Amino acid sequence: MRSEEAFPRLRALGFAEPDAQALAAHFLDAERTGRYGHGLSRIEWLGTLDGIDPGARPRRELSEPGYERWRGDGALGYLVLAAVVEAQLAHPPEPARIVVCSDTFPTGALGYWARQLAEGGLVAALTATSPRRLGHPDGGPKLTGTNPLAIAIPSSDGRPLVVDVSMGRVTYGDVIRGAATDEELVPFGGDRAHKAFALAVGLQLLVDSLAGPDHGAVLLVARPEHDPVPAFRELAQGVRLPGDRGLAL
Amino acid sequence: MRSEEAFPRLRALGFAEPDAQALAAHFLDAERTGRYGHGLSRIEWLGTLDGIDPGARPRRELSEPGYERWRGDGALGYLVLAAVVEAQLAHPPEPARIVVCSDTFPTGALGYWARQLAEGGLVAALTATSPRRLGHPDGGPKLTGTNPLAIAIPSSDGRPLVVDVSMGRVTYGDVIRGAATDEELVPFGGDRAHKAFALAVGLQLLVDSLAGPDHGAVLLVARPEHDPVPAFRELAQGVRLPGDRGLAL
């Protein structure tokens, strides 16, 4: 699929113009930054998902100081996170907030959403669950999603630092687009793969305990009290830092 | 050092009885669960640290719905986290809270503190920074601490699930006690070590942006809305899950 086909194809799937725009922006950003597994190949994949309701709207069920709960209500996870990000930027936490999203799938490249918050001046840490595709490195049933953790920190130099790490050796998106096999989708880490597996288990149950049994997401969003990124870049002396080349890890 | 020496040695370092008890409990738990790098070897190491004030008390600077800020004020990080855990259990979040701890070092085995929260019925995710000991897998300056992430989930079966993963291939505690060399203290992951490095960078800057340039800790603590652990254990069909044998990862 070519870039210019993204928006009309999404409109053809039934999405209203602003939703199709939000979705196309995510997929095209993924292509631009080399996250092909989260890119245009997903548009075709969306057409294969059951129970997609292009007209569904995410709903904020609860809003308290320091806490919000959202529900997808049939909307794509991408659109839930787009709405959550927009709401946080419109009403930033004072000084911190946990946002729990239920019924929220698929969520795409989490660093894309976290980066938007950091570009708006907020610190963000975001994780999300997905179908169980990782098992224990020694074998056994598939127990967790690839459960990425994205962390984004604003910077006074205008270049937020964004980290986005999934616990899989390869991404499921790579499997979908044929760049990796299903057998390669194991916890990363080689002889230390039990560590990535443990992180996947912890993030899985963190989300499950707050958002419930359906796929969900948990976001920590906060106003920064300090501005550590410029000094960190200086300390790094030109070492390539995560997110700087825009490539997924 | 033998177990029974822990408490008197800590008293001899000048700690009052309840603080010496809290510290000894942490070190002895680390020994019992195989986390020797966080165990009794640390008592001798404490004696070598500059600027330790055994009489210092951690201070809660700010307490709002969903947010607390604590400061070590010269107290050992262990004792800051002990006070934070006690305060959360005494006044649980409704439903979630971010706790930012400045001037908080050393913090020990984070899973120990997270487990206490889960045993009290609360979900916990805890990270903390420490001296810069990890660099980019390709080389360059040391940029981040080993920056563990601990996640603990309460369970109606009485067995919380606790994950505690540092981003280093070995622990600094192992280096201190001679079980590993300094050269082995690199991001874990082999050919995917850039992923563990990215996580270390993200957690470093998350803590730095909220807690400031001194070592610190950030805790997410929440009441669970769901009880996913029993079903997860059933799904795992006897696969060894993180924390179950009590061994550090």
- N-to-C terminal Cα separation of chain A, in Å? 24 Å
Oligomeric state: homodimer
**What would CATH call the class of chain A?**
Alpha Beta
Q: Tell me the number of structural domains of chain A.
A: 1
| Total DSSP helices of chain A | 8
- Percent helix of chain A, as a range, is 25-40%
Q: What's the pLDDT, averaged over the residues of chain A?
A: 95
Q: Strand percentage of chain A, roughly?
A: 15-25%
| Largest beta-sheet characterization of chain A | 7 strands, mixed
Find the structural class of chain A using helix and strand composition.
alpha+beta
CATH architecture classification of chain A: 2-Layer Sandwich
CATH topology of chain A: Ribosomal Protein S8, Chain: A, domain 1
Please state the CA-atom Rg of chain A, rounded to the nearest Å: 18 Å
DSSP strand tally of chain A: 7
Largest interface, counted with CB-CB under 8 A? A-B, 68 and 68 residues
- The CATH superfamily of chain A appears as Malate/L-lactate/L-sulpholactate dehydrogenase, NADPH binding domain
Please, could you describe this protein's structure?
Chain A has helices spanning 6-12, 17-32, 41-48, 77-90, 110-119, 172-176, 193-211, 229-236, and strands at residues 59-64, 67-71, 96-102, 123-128, 149-153, 161-165, 217-222. Chain A is α+β, with helices and mostly antiparallel strands. The first copy, chain A, has a single domain, classed as Ribosomal Protein S8, Chain: A, domain 1. Chain A has a 7-stranded mixed β-sheet with strand order 1-2-3-7-4-5-6, with helices on both faces. The model of chain A has no long low-confidence stretch (mean pLDDT 95). The interface between A and B is large, with 68 and 68 residues.
